[in-house]
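task queued by scheduler; priority normal; single chain, no ligands, no partner chains; default sampling; output format set to structure tokens
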Amino acid sequence: MHTETVDRVSRRFVRYLETGAEPEALFTEDVFLDFTLPHWRLQAQGLADVHAVRLRGHPATGTVSRWSASPTPAGFAMEAEERWRDAKSDWYCREAFFAELRGDRIARLSVYCTGDWDRERQAAHAGQVSLLEP
């Protein structure tokens, strides 16, 4: 995949992760999602169902504090850290994404997520682990 395409689409994907806005500009109408969590796996097909999975998991807006994307033959591989806040807590997760593109839109997306860490989980981790890189 061309670097310019990966850069353009991955930036739109980050904006989508942060806002949930304009999924129709990012995904094909028949997009397929395969989402793996620590103890669960979900799949969805079609723009509305894929967007509904995102809204169930991350209904609030947030930030993608760090991310990188690399071209693959059919699209891109990406890693990202997300942070968001809701009425219950401040949340954090790390994810790996593998996207297959059709033109400038994601047609297939595989997601591997650490699960959502609330404020208490983040504090416990920080108290027990010293990371080499933040």
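post-processing summary
- The mean pLDDT is 95.
- Strands lie at 27-37, 40-45, 62-71, 75-85, 90-102, 105-113.
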